Amino acid sequence: MSKIQAGMAIKLEVEREAEFGYFIGDGMESILLPNSEIQSDSQISIGDKVKVFVYLDKTGRLTATTKIPEVRFDSYGWAEVVSVKKEMGVFVNIGLSKDILVSVDDLPNLRHLWPKVGDALYISLKSDRHERLLGKLASEDVMQETSVEAPLKGIRNDSVKGNVYRLLMVGSFFISQEGYRCFIHETERVEEPRLGELVEGRVIDRKEDGTLNVSLLPFKQDKMEEDAAVIYKYLLNRGGAMPYGDKTLPEDVKFHFGLSKGSFKRALGKLMKEDKVYQEDGWTYSSNRK
């Protein structure tokens, strides 16, 4: 029985040449190595042993390529998402002429957390009962083996960037471009990132195991600047007067400004300190109204 299967990187012998490529095999079964799947610097002759990667083409036939992808059964790598199919999952490019499906069964239950085109997933390969190749998301154990420990000192407040590989109720995990395993607690983000999304944050802690805690929130000073700008713009759009101030109910603050009561008061205090606004009888006014 032939041992040639989709997903294998294997050496096969060149048996004969055809107009559209070469037939290669293991003595029991032959498959096609198309001319389009031969790297330009490769020289092939009858009787040669060539290393190829085997996959199923669009018609379901075993086909070979000399372009060996990093992503295989026994090897993980990053694969870019190239299309999203609602009923199937997402397709990724691993360097083959055919894209690989990451099944809907392996993706988050919430569709807005699915990867989008351009995102990247860290995967290996698996096959279904029809020998079709599928993408297999890396487990936490695999990511631990892949990652490196962050330095002991000098990394706090540094910026780190990477693709999200795991989503939990308590937060999200990503691997930084340096190889550090990073965790974003749910309180350290405005919204939950997608699986595969490229995120950038700042380091807020290094744990004993060499992993990092990361925040996607801006520094408090930067946040206060943004909040103050939101409030001041709202105020000016109302002609320099608004019926909101320190005593406004938290739910009203949230509804009109999208801020917590504490953030609202800090930003309002900043505007008053800068003499841009003043308060009177529960209202806030721009100072140029005086």
Automatic annotation (TrEMBL):
Pfam family, one: WHD_CvfB
Domain Conserved virulence factor B first S1: residue ranges: 7-67
Every Conserved virulence factor B-like winged helix domain range: 230-285
Chain ranges of the Conserved virulence factor B third S1 domain: 153-218
The organism's place on the tree of life at top rank: Bacteria
Conserved virulence factor B second S1 domain segment(s): 76-136
Family affiliation: Belongs to the CvfB family.
Name this polypeptide is given: S1 motif domain-containing protein
